[in-house]
Amino acid sequence: MTSLQAGIENRRAFSVVPTPLVVAAALVDGQPAGMMIGSFVTHSLTPGLVSISVQRNSSSWPKLRDAGQIGISLISEKLRTIIPEFYRPSHERFTAVEWSAQGSGVILDDSPMAMVTEVISEIDAGDHLLVMLQITELNTLEDDEPGNQPIVFQQSIFRSMNA
User: Fold this and answer.
1) Does this entry carry the keyword ATP-binding (predicted)?
2) Could you give the 3-state DSSP secondary structure of residue 157?
3) Cβ-count burial of 150 within 10 angstroms (0-12 exposed, 13-18 middle, 19+ buried)?
4) C-alpha–C-alpha distance, residues 88 and 4, integer Å
5) What are the backbone angles phi and psi of residue 21, rounded to the nearest 5°?
């Protein structure tokens, strides 16, 4: 099997696993910059550690990495309408998105879970970088409120976690 065939087969197999959808964002030159991430994992409660995976060829990641603090915001059903904004060119992504800054981290208003983080390491993960982040601030909303259930990415579809 060629590496291209293996990559296609892996993509199909991996797509079965639902992953939470988050936005990673920071202030860059005084303006919000960010990207949608479909690979967010929690690792440690003490200290609070999470990870995201970013494509090695991402043009957004170097800007975020150099910002110092990065906001991570969980996308919920209430925030579903912002997903198309992150398909826009990077300088247009926050035009119709409500956000606030905490230090240099940018978090989305109404996110049921938002955190400010700092990069502690990057690990080679093939065509991606696995980025370990330490939580410096954490904000949560009541998760039983309507619309606060997370959106997950599974089989190339954004799915609601509403029961």
Assistant:
1) no
2) strand
3) buried
4) 28
5) -105, 125
Residue 84 to residue 94: CA distance in whole angstroms: 11
Looking at the predicted structure, is the pLDDT value of residue 100 above 60? yes
Cβ(74)–Cβ(113) below 8 Å = yes
Give the C-alpha separation, 149 to 153, whole Å: 13
Output the six-digit token pair for 44: 């440690």
**Residue 48 token pair:** 């609070």
Residue 71: name the closest of 19, 98, 108 by CA. Answer: 108
* Gap between the Cα atoms of 10 and 12, Å rounded: 5
CB 20 within 8 A of CB 39: no
Q: Record the tokens describing residue 134, joined without a space.
A: 């330490």
